């Protein structure tokens, strides 16, 4: 596979986790893996069923959108990934090295309702200290101009308007569309995508049990997040 073999392998392995984690039906999802030193990312080819994927048919794209290796068309969401790498990982210096987008059921439900996912409990707080943000709809003009590219711009603009740190808030809902998540590797992006889906399910069930449920107290949120991510983290082996 040449110079990009390890990147393609990483992207392929991450994409194969999507059906394993129950995050997509058919071909409704994609993961990319980014190499900032090379300025390229590998992504799933468009419309190819997961059982047919191989490392060799991952497509490598640069941040200008040029295909630098691969014989197949990249995912139709490639422009979104490209904007997010360029604006978050490169321009803002965030540790975004993998991005996942799916249409997982519970996360999509919140996106379709155009509602942030409230932070109700410690499972959520273990991963981020805020509600999961949901963007507004794209404007009609943006959709007609370049739908996928403008989706990336919408995510980036929403984070900047809320002053959210993409190293700390690693997931988002696009209003009317669905979830995106990211991480320091493509595998971590999938992990965060699975967390997002589970948090979305838990929040919906919480509101079923108590429609008046209120967010978790800040002092509990801070404890759970900092024990895993803070300077004195002690969760797991070696504080990780």
Structure notes:
This protein is α+β, with helices and mostly antiparallel strands. It has one domain (2-229): Class II aldolase/adducin N-terminal domain (L-fuculose-1-phosphate Aldolase, 3-Layer(aba) Sandwich), CATH 3.40.225.10. The chain contains 7 helices and 7 strands, in the order H-E-E-E-E-H-E-H-H-H-E-E-H-H. The chain has helices at 5-20, 78-91, 105-113, 122-125, 140-162, 186-209, 218-229; strands spanning 29-35, 40-43, 59-62, 67-69, 98-102, 171-174, 178-183. A 7-stranded antiparallel beta sheet has the order 4-3-2-1-5-7-6, sandwiched between helices. Helix 3 crosses helix 6. It is globular and about 50 Å long.
Give me a quick take on this structure.
With 240 residues, the chain is α+β, with helices and mostly antiparallel strands. The protein is 42% helix and 14% strand.
